[in-house]
Amino acid sequence: MTVKTRFAPSPTGFLHVGGARTALYSWLYARNQGGQFVLRIEDTDLERSTQEAIDAILEGMEWLGLNWEEGPYYQTKRFDRYNQLIDQLLEEGKAYKCYCSKERVDALREQQMANGEKARYDGHCRDGNHDHAEDAPYVVRFKNPTEGKVVFDDHVRGRIEIDNKELDDLIIRRTDGAPTYNFCVVVDDWDMGITQVVRGEDHINNTPRQINIYHALGAPVPEFAHVSMILGDDGAKLSKRHGAVSVMQYRDDGYLQEALLNYLVRLGWSHGDQEIFSLDEMVQLFSLKAINKSASAFNTDKLLWLNQHYMKSLPAERVAEELKWHFENQGIDMTHGPALTDLIPVMAERCQTLKELAASSRYFYEDFAEFDAGAAKKHLRPVAQEALALAQAKLAALTEWNAEAIHRCIQETADELELGMGKVGMPLRVAVTGAGQSPSLDQTILLIGQARSVDRIGKAVEFVASRANS
């Protein structure tokens, strides 16, 4: 039998971190088993489902690289199939029409809760011998077994048993004729040949009901793996107040796909003490049995650490693909300046996100109108004027523009003026970058370029002279 997994989000919002992790686990298991991965959009909630959310889910999946063999399927396009099977269950006496008004059901549940009982439908219409108008509105309820237990072995949580007496007869078709989620998902997984269902623990209560529907339809029951929720740093359920929860927000904030995938896979799954996994390693090593049943806490610092690791270790060409978007998004003109592939090895040591790297690299591409006030006050003083002028002349005279030659110019300037390197280097750094922080000075000047560096040092000399005369 071919292993088939699926990711089936509801398009009522963006692709969030928890959903992305579920999708990743499903995708990895299919790849590990040489199987197939299906994408299904569960859009039966017509009031809350939006095309914007569908587009966001697809964009998030594509950015993460979680490609699918089948889909995307849409439940709203399969209503005829669901209703055909609901009619079949009605004919077979495995479902029934329920004419109870909303008011009766609400009153029943209020009374049950007041009595300290579990709120559940009482089967009033189960046997069908109640008077009602022929055109009275009705829902269709599944006739859940009243004896025995539902038993299944969950890949994450082990053996789970639920007494059928705990389950009421759930609605499988509303008064408007629309089939409901719990029925649609069973039919979809059956029709699409899903063999393993990986989903959040919030679905555990649905599983026994769905297993009974599989049995009623004569459909094979897939295996289940219910993964725990993700918590924020403070132990509460992950939400917007903990920071970005939309997958594409992480892209916008400067995280690499590789870093987010590596981080997500470790939020509940492990392989020894290993922290860093390539995608090939994840596929090779992943198993459902290795998923931890306890909740995982999201740690932004750990994600930042991973992101910087990938910024430094991935081929510069790969990082540049993502970095280019951040430069464009921040309005930085890359026409005049170093190739991004040359910039990345120099700047990745100093930045944790691509967004930060782009913002910190503007001076390599664009001239600045003024020097940072604090850095200028400290380093662009009259005593620095001679060193700046001499270094400018030496750099302007270079016929070979490389880091070694640039370093030699700076060293010779310090030696000739009998100054420490800091007395030469810091004024030069402020002169060419406009601020007091940058990578190594020879690399910085190299990437800024000869003409632009010489010109900026000249402006610094003029700035120092104007301060001396003021």
Write the layout of secondary structure elements.
Layout: E1 4-7, H1 17-32, E2 36-41, H2 51-64, E3 70-74, H3 79-91, E4 95-98, H4 102-114, E5 139-142, E6 149-154, E7 158-163, E8 171-173, H5 181-191, E9 196-200, H6 206-217, E10 223-227, E11 230-231, H7 247-252, H8 257-265, H9 279-285, E12 296-297, H10 300-313, H11 316-329, H12 340-347, H13 354-360, H14 373-379, H15 385-397, H16 403-416, H17 421-433, H18 441-448, H19 450-469
Parallel strand pairs: 1-2, 2-3, 9-10, 11-12
Antiparallel strand pairs: 4-5, 5-8, 6-7
Helix pairs in contact: 1-9, 5-6, 8-10, 11-12, 11-13, 15-16, 15-19, 16-17, 16-18, 17-18, 17-19
Structure characterization notes:
By secondary structure, the protein is mainly alpha-helical. The chain is built from 19 helices and twelve strands. It has helices spanning 17-32, 51-64, 79-91, 102-114, 181-191, 206-217, 247-252, 257-265, 279-285, 300-313, 316-329, 340-347, 354-360, 373-379, 385-397, 403-416, 421-433, 441-448, 450-469, and strands at 4-7, 36-41, 70-74, 95-98, 139-142, 149-154, 158-163, 171-173, 196-200, 223-227, 230-231, 296-297. It has a three-stranded parallel sheet, with helices on one face. A three-stranded antiparallel sheet has the order 4-5-8. It has a two-stranded antiparallel ribbon with strand order 6-7. Helix 8 crosses helix 10 (300-313) and helix 17 (421-433) packs parallel to helix 18 (441-448). The longest helix has 20 residues, at 450-469. The protein is elongated, with a radius of gyration of 32 Å. The termini are far apart.
